[in-house]
Write a structure and sequence with these properties.
The chain is mainly alpha-helical. The protein folds into two domains: about 10-110, no CATH class; about 145-240. It is about 50% helix and about 5% strand. The chain is elongated and about 65 Å long. The N and C termini lie far apart (about 50 Å).
Length: about 240
Amino acid sequence: MRPPKWHRDEIILALDLYYTLEKRNLDSSNPEVILLSQTLNNLPIHKDISNIKFRNQNGVAMKLNNFKAIDPTIKGGLSSFSKLDKAVFLEFQNNIQLLNNFAIKIKTVSSSSITSKLNRITDEEEEEDEVDVVKEGRVIYKLHKYRERDSSINKKKKAQTLKEKGSLKCEVCNFDFFKKYGELGAGYIECHHKVPLSQLDSEGTTRLADLALVCSNCHRMLHKKIDVLSILDLKKLLSS
């Protein structure tokens, strides 16, 4: 069984380590390389991995030396890097602090008490065709989805809105499932977590004010540009 391709989150963590280590000490015996190998294997990303070679210390050392081949300030390295390796390297080469911030966030979420719950989110629920472009990465996107799936807070949000406004309309396009489908659509609408991915806290709680009620179409559009698109932005786009 071949190990899966490296995800953006994994590349971010490896690149963060690359900028931490002496470039002459990127071998598999380095304790930091071994520790990163363990961290990568604990990320809530890959499922049913039984390959003992999966992200082991040799694989991590190779990835670090891939970056060395991309790095214009250093000679040598392994030229077998991927397009994503190079793209992530170029994205952060002038903003190492942002890279470190993302790495810290990924590791914090991955070591939190909800890691096992994040692992239960399926590829379909992650919208895998879109999540790979999320700059914060797959782990943080899983945390976003986890917050949106909290049925208890979702019910409270709907109840509050019904009490205050008398109906459940999409906050972007005003679509009303009950008005369109009758009893079949009664009480139906989706909840979107408005807190930016960069501000999500794995140990935090979701407030009613953090949620927006949206129709399925608008919800999908919000997720297509989840890093930058707000409820207000999408509303302006729709009106224009």
